[in-house]
Amino acid sequence: MTGSDKTKVSVMVVDDHPIWRDGVARDLAENGFDVRATAADGAAAIRISRAVRPDVVLMDLNLGETSGVDATREITAALPETKVLVLSASGEHSDVLEAVKAGASGYLVKSASATELVDAVLRTAAGDPVFTAGLAGLVLGEYRRMADSPSEGPPPPQLTERETDVLRFVAKGMTARQIAEKLVLSHRTVENHVQSTLRKLQLHNRVELARYAIEHGLDEE
Amino acid sequence: MTGSDKTKVSVMVVDDHPIWRDGVARDLAENGFDVRATAADGAAAIRISRAVRPDVVLMDLNLGETSGVDATREITAALPETKVLVLSASGEHSDVLEAVKAGASGYLVKSASATELVDAVLRTAAGDPVFTAGLAGLVLGEYRRMADSPSEGPPPPQLTERETDVLRFVAKGMTARQIAEKLVLSHRTVENHVQSTLRKLQLHNRVELARYAIEHGLDEE
DNA sequence: GGTCCGTTCAGGGTTTTTCCCGGATCTACC
DNA sequence: GGTAGATCCGGGAAAAACCCTGAACGGACC
Q1: Which of chain A's residues 167-206 bind strand D, using a 7 Å CB cutoff?
Q2: CA torsion through residues B183, B186, B189, B195, sign
Q3: In a designed cystine with A208, which of A203, B52, B71, B178 is the match (CB 3.0 to 4.6 A)?
Q4: C-beta separation of A218 from A164 below 8 A
Q5: pTM above 0.90, yes or no
């Protein structure tokens, strides 16, 4: 622990919901934590954390602009002394693994009680990895799976902007020609984007693409 | 206002996230509200609200078992004096309309600030409908649209058992041949079931079928 | 300059889907 | 017995999707 105060563990709360954010912040303050800062989005979280260097960052995953995962990656890279404890509404396995890969020291679902939260922050500050029931095993299992294959792992399937555009329309049920018209393209180009997206995501058809898009929120807006 | 206290507006908070629930409850208590009760799920909300008869129920939509919409319906039916103010993370149009149809007096997205929340609860208790920016117009527009068409609605297109079976697999991204093998059928038969399903639901391809299945929960299990 | 990558287009192939049709049971209901 | 619907099978044909390939352009980076 490298808190700049004597006894208190310093904390920063990142969440885009003001009510939640302030509620958690006050909760922690009343339980003896030094709440140094709060932030509403990933960009602010990155910026402010560099300045205040908290012991623990409580990070919501579901932010608006910069994702909580990105912010987690940036923060843990810049501040190795700072631990990031993810607080997310979803217990989605992929979310957990993403967060851990980005450097999170723990993952708590929001259904946790106030006392569980306090306990989790303390343990995180102490260097203990904290995971809500069932998730610890998941991460362990994934770790073992990775350890078996020497230097592998699902490479971050990042789609290009155009591929994301096309994917959104595919998920709506449009054909290549319809999408081509919408984006002012040749339908062959659209088909090519679909192809490379299928390859990158290791999927096999448009229905699976649609499910992927829906599960990852690409489908909204 | 029919609060049984003199000056205070009585409130009940329903949310499955303990931290959020307690945070909001304390917030309201500190702002002069009489927080009579809290509940973690729809069933408890219905039961407890009958006993405490709060002026306003702050209802989260995204509960576990009984949905917030169902709870809203039950509560407004049983307690006409009680107003339900929905507090939801999503600003999804369909969610708003569902909630209003179930009897909600207002709809606030969770990105609202603490002061907005306090103000909204007060106005709800006073009988004012409260909606976050943009949603008021939506409800009005929908109301007008309904008033135009006397007593209509999309007739529930009922699929046969076999069609539902096939649809489930289609929604998983399987091809006709794969489904045929699974169900021990000819792939032509599977294609025929897909065809008749497309006709009945007035859809045009498998992606739209998948979306339909997901939205109607056919996709689970 | 050279290389990489994103974006665009297209040829040429196979497979799958989409759409129309007819025919065969079986069951249920009038 | 007739009729209707659910279930099964199939033919045929056009469209779309899937898969691989090559190629051209511009921007970024070394």
Answers
A1: 175-177, 191-192, 194-195, 198-199, 204-206
A2: positive
A3: A203
A4: yes
A5: no
